[in-house]
């Protein structure tokens, strides 16, 4: 799938284009909702008379929809203008938010979350594609630092924000507060956002759309079932296998369409080594981040007895540190390249997760805060350079496909991280309870083992970080084969 990109005049050096600023703001608002309901699970169970497994679906359905919709965004963004894509994405998100706020039942709330996610799925690929077109290569690290605020910090701040809001009202307040903010951002964007590319009419292979939805959606659904009761573990494994099989069919179909037509997701992005490495590192990083975001509230509330507000306040400094460091990390990347940032960041990520394997009934809260802050700082030092390197390794006609694949695998990694840590924790806890161990020590042991598994997986990021180049050659559009050549590696 190729698209004629209308080049914009070069932006002034050192200045973030207005269109990027507005898209970052809008993306932050919509992505925040992916994790904002994590702290509201007990309230939902009480208000809507549902089980914990059912309540978890308000987050799982969001990830499931994102994974199913994002593969289509590469084609969608080439069919419409920037303003049209922005208006459609934010309009759908607003509709889903309003529906969730007034939902009379759990089923309607779940539908509202699905509609929310459909709008959210468009925003990140739109932001990334726009940034790569309008921002000069030498400024991308600094600008990507601001993008990190939306892509990475918003999910990290979700539980903290929800803890503050839940202290003041019911779970509906989470949507009531977001609705006017999202509406104001939408109106501002429609006034200020310029079109940065010309739409191009292209065909879409609906077989690819169906197989992608079944494959990526099924994989996320199956992974989510692994974290539930033992009775659904076998079903989850079966759906994961079916999802992987559907993804294999999708890959074969895309390889064929690359030769004869227009693929839904151009897999030639994976032929660029730096993009592939970046994709792997980001996926493992999101796995670790979402896994820890699930475990920490469980530890702080179920084991240590903190309220949602207290839990939110405890994890808020780490999320804020990640956001505040994003622009600084971007500037350092522009000056020094990736390795002085990504390698220490990956090591910090592993050390933080190793530290969490020592949680106890008496661990001082300042140690929990410090470990969480170290985790977030490590991720901040990693995500910004890796996002920039990965997208910069692609030629312009693959930007939309690269951002779509990035977003899809983030959702799969998030679902896998959530399912993995919950499954490990539940299995260990169940075994100890069967042996006569008290509930609190059994849960604590399960959490420590889950953190250990996450730490072991995150060690892969150190290996990948050592293989990344410092920088990517400028002007990759001239020659796909030259797009991935490192400078100063």
TrEMBL record:
<keyword id="KW-0813">Transport</keyword>
<feature type="transmembrane region" description="Helical">
    <location>
        <begin position="20"/>
        <end position="42"/>
    </location>
</feature>
<feature type="transmembrane region" description="Helical">
    <location>
        <begin position="406"/>
        <end position="427"/>
    </location>
</feature>
<keyword id="KW-1003">Cell membrane</keyword>
<feature type="transmembrane region" description="Helical">
    <location>
        <begin position="54"/>
        <end position="77"/>
    </location>
</feature>
<dbReference type="InterPro" id="IPR011701">
    <property type="entry name" value="MFS"/>
</dbReference>
<feature type="transmembrane region" description="Helical">
    <location>
        <begin position="115"/>
        <end position="135"/>
    </location>
</feature>
<dbReference type="Pfam" id="PF07690">
    <property type="entry name" value="MFS_1"/>
</dbReference>
<feature type="transmembrane region" description="Helical">
    <location>
        <begin position="341"/>
        <end position="361"/>
    </location>
</feature>
<feature type="transmembrane region" description="Helical">
    <location>
        <begin position="171"/>
        <end position="190"/>
    </location>
</feature>
<feature type="transmembrane region" description="Helical">
    <location>
        <begin position="202"/>
        <end position="221"/>
    </location>
</feature>
<comment type="similarity">
    <text>Belongs to the major facilitator superfamily. EmrB family.</text>
</comment>
<keyword id="KW-0046">Antibiotic resistance</keyword>
<dbReference type="InterPro" id="IPR020846">
    <property type="entry name" value="MFS_dom"/>
</dbReference>
<feature type="transmembrane region" description="Helical">
    <location>
        <begin position="84"/>
        <end position="103"/>
    </location>
</feature>
<keyword id="KW-0472">Membrane</keyword>
<protein>
    <submittedName>
        <fullName>MDR family MFS transporter</fullName>
    </submittedName>
</protein>
<keyword id="KW-0812">Transmembrane</keyword>
<feature type="transmembrane region" description="Helical">
    <location>
        <begin position="373"/>
        <end position="394"/>
    </location>
</feature>
<feature type="transmembrane region" description="Helical">
    <location>
        <begin position="233"/>
        <end position="253"/>
    </location>
</feature>
<dbReference type="InterPro" id="IPR004638">
    <property type="entry name" value="EmrB-like"/>
</dbReference>
<feature type="transmembrane region" description="Helical">
    <location>
        <begin position="274"/>
        <end position="300"/>
    </location>
</feature>
<dbReference type="InterPro" id="IPR036259">
    <property type="entry name" value="MFS_trans_sf"/>
</dbReference>
<feature type="transmembrane region" description="Helical">
    <location>
        <begin position="147"/>
        <end position="165"/>
    </location>
</feature>
<feature type="transmembrane region" description="Helical">
    <location>
        <begin position="312"/>
        <end position="329"/>
    </location>
</feature>
<feature type="transmembrane region" description="Helical">
    <location>
        <begin position="447"/>
        <end position="466"/>
    </location>
</feature>
<feature type="domain" description="Major facilitator superfamily (MFS) profile">
    <location>
        <begin position="19"/>
        <end position="473"/>
    </location>
</feature>
<keyword id="KW-1133">Transmembrane helix</keyword>
